[in-house]
């Protein structure tokens, strides 16, 4: 069945619309190597971690890899919402790709590769510390290597300060305590973070958002010395547009000599979506967006001509729907914690995924074996067809989940030789999870439908009694609407995620649910 693309930024007429990625790729950093652009973003406690996206034109992007298969600490074998990998940075130097990433409770790490589409190295700790965040490495012309970073107030008691440290050129370890080169508390800024360090025309530049995620602006610092002192200038703000923020991002150029800036916008439930802004230089200051005021501060574009990259690229977007017909799990999927091989199996011969029932003691949102992916658009439907025949009468529960600050799972519970429709709902960090059981069903296959519309999530289902055609019941069926409509709210630093689950409350783990597809549909 052909997949529907819910959001395409490329208008196919030489222009694009923002956001170029309507999905939760927060804290993006981007580089160009030859004709190729690579983007990475935060991933927090979800694994695989640190998605790697690829583009040829800065508008059309696909997920091509992840830097980490798992997070390198046992703490993340269970969900750790809001922890894990925060804002990373990607750089290319002497034939090697480097990703520096912070884990605010553990330190600063680096992983590297010669092939960004292939295997990345195991992470190396370059600075063991609590509260150091947002690292960005920089190789200077004289061979010296530096790292600029910020601080998390939740761990350090302060923020709004940027620090420069020297790195060992061979090991990349931080070799001194560093020096604070910018203090936004002294200049009237607030929550200056996410620094990216560049050099141009003899100036060192630090691009950093300031003022907070939802209301902030883009700050640029410059100095003739990497140690400062730095001049500062606000170069991009919301202005008269609906693009609040605009927040952390990256400067990148094209081979034709154009300059562009990618940044995220906090878009609420969907998370932090990615925008592309035109950029140019005047008097050795970057000028971003359009409608610059007298101080040189621009505002974001809602649409614009595409970058001049010397070729036409086919429009695309990250994959979302899945027919489970491959021999590896699709790159759209992440787990809620470090995954275990016993959680799932791909049944390649029958084009489906089998999720094993895992025993959980806490709330559903704290189950590690939630198979999740990002919202790909502001509104959509999802359908999934489930084989329930191997669920056991031990309180196995399987179905679809919407995971956010408010979460809800909708599916089937096996109890006392019966199958019943069930909905589990609760709020993050609140002990208020509720389980509502609805009508009994008498079928071994079911299609579940999730409707995401107007910041709310609702559900319906259809029992399947003829399983010869896997698509027969996917359209033009009589849906039975059941359960409560739930208000969607974002999670801890992340947008709402959707996916599949299979859990058990009775310490029994021999049940299995098989999903034949997971399909997104336009509304």
Kindly describe this structure:
The chain has 523 residues and is an all-beta fold. 1% of the residues lie in helices and 45% in strands. The chain has one helix and 38 strands. The protein has one helix at 153-156, and strands spanning 15-17, 29-33, 36-40, 49-55, 62-68, 89-93, 96-103, 107-113, 124-128, 132-139, 145-151, 161-167, 179-183, 196-200, 203-210, 217-223, 231-236, 249-253, 259-266, 272-282, 285-288, 303-305, 334-335, 344-347, 352-356, 358-359, 371-374, 380-387, 396-403, 406-415, 418-427, 434-441, 445-453, 456-464, 480-481, 486-487, 497-504, 512-521. Strands 23, 26, 27, 29, 30, 31, 32 and 37 form an eight-stranded mixed sheet that branches. Strands 24, 25, 28, 33, 34, 35, 36 and 38 form an eight-stranded antiparallel sheet that branches. A four-stranded antiparallel sheet has the order 2-3-4-5, with no helix packed on it. Strand 6 (89-93) and strand 7 (96-103) form a beta hairpin. The protein is globular and about 75 Å long. The model has no long low-confidence stretch (mean pLDDT 95).
Characteristic terms for this protein:
8-stranded antiparallel sheet; globular; 8-stranded mixed sheet; mainly beta; 523 residues
Question: Helices, strands, pairings?
Answer:
Elements (H helix, E strand, L loop, with lengths): L14 E3 L11 E5 L2 E5 L8 E7 L6 E7 L20 E5 L2 E8 L3 E7 L10 E5 L3 E8 L5 E7 L1 H4 L4 E7 L11 E5 L12 E5 L2 E8 L6 E7 L7 E6 L12 E5 L5 E8 L5 E11 L2 E4 L14 E3 L28 E2 L8 E4 L4 E5 L1 E2 L11 E4 L5 E8 L8 E8 L2 E10 L2 E10 L6 E8 L3 E9 L2 E9 L15 E2 L4 E2 L9 E8 L7 E10 L2
Parallel strand pairs: 26-37
Antiparallel strand pairs: 1-22, 2-3, 3-4, 4-5, 6-7, 7-8, 8-9, 10-11, 11-12, 12-13, 14-15, 15-16, 16-17, 18-19, 19-20, 20-21, 23-27, 24-25, 25-38, 27-37, 28-33, 28-38, 29-30, 29-37, 30-31, 31-32, 33-34, 34-35, 34-36
């Amino acid at each position: 069945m052909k997949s529907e693309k819910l959001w395409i930024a490329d208008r196919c007429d030489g222009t694009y619309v923002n956001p170029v990625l309507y999905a939760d790729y927060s804290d993006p950093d981007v580089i160009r190597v030859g004709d190729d652009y690579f983007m990475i973003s935060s991933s927090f406690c979800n694994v695989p971690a640190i998605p790697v996206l690829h583009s040829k034109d800065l508008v059309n992007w696909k997920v091509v890899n992840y830097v980490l298969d798992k997070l390198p600490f046992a703490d993340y074998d269970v969900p750790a919402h809001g922890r894990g990998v925060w804002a990373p940075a990607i750089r290319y130097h002497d034939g090697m790709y480097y990703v520096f990433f912070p884990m605010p409770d553990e330190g600063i790490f680096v992983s590297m590769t010669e092939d960004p589409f292939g295997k990345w190295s195991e992470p190396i700790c370059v600075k063991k510390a609590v509260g150091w965040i947002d690292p960005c490495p920089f190789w200077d012309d004289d061979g010296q290597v530096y790292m600029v970073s910020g601080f998390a107030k939740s761990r350090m008691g302060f923020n709004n300060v940027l620090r420069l440290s020297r790195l060992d050129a061979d090991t990349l370890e931080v070799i001194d305590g560093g020096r604070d080169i910018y203090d936004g508390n002294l200049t009237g800024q607030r929550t200056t973070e996410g620094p990216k360090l560049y050099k141009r025309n003899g100036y060192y530049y630090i691009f950093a958002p300031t003022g907070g995620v939802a209301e902030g602006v883009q700050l640029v610092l410059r100095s003739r010395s990497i140690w400062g002192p730095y001049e500062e200038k606000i170069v991009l703000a919301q202005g008269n547009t609906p693009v609040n923020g605009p927040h952390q991002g990256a400067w990148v150029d094209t081979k034709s000599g154009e300059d562009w800036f990618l940044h995220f916008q906090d878009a609420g439930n969907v998370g932090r979506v990615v925008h592309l802004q035109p950029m140019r230089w005047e008097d050795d200051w970057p000028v971003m967006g359009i409608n610059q005021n007298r101080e040189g501060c621009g505002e974001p574009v809602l649409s614009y001509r595409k970058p001049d990259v010397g070729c036409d690229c086919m429009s695309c977007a990250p994959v979302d729907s899945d027919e489970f017909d491959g021999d590896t799990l699709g790159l759209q999927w992440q787990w809620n914690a470090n995954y275990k091989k016993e959680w799932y199996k791909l049944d390649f011969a029958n084009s489906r995924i089998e999720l094993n029932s895992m025993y959980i003691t806490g709330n559903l949102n704290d189950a590690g074996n939630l198979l999740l992916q990002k919202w790909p658009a502001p509104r959509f439907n999802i359908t999934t067809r489930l084989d329930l025949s191997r669920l056991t009468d031990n309180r196995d529960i399987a179905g679809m989940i919407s995971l956010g600050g408010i979460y809800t799972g909708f599916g089937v519970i096996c109890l006392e030789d019966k199958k019943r429709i069930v909905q589990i709902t609760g709020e993050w960090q609140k002990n208020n999870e509720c389980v509502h059981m609805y009508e009994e069903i008498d079928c071994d296959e079911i299609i579940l439908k999730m409707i995401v519309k107007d910041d709310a999530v609702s559900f319906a289902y259809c029992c399947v009694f003829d399983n010869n055609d896997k698509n027969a019941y996917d359209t033009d069926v009589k849906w039975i609407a059941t359960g409560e409509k739930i208000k969607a709210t974002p999670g801890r630093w992340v947008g709402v995620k959707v996916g599949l689950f299979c859990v058990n409350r009775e310490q029994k783990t021999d049940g299995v649910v098989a999903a034949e597809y997971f399909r997104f549909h336009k509304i």
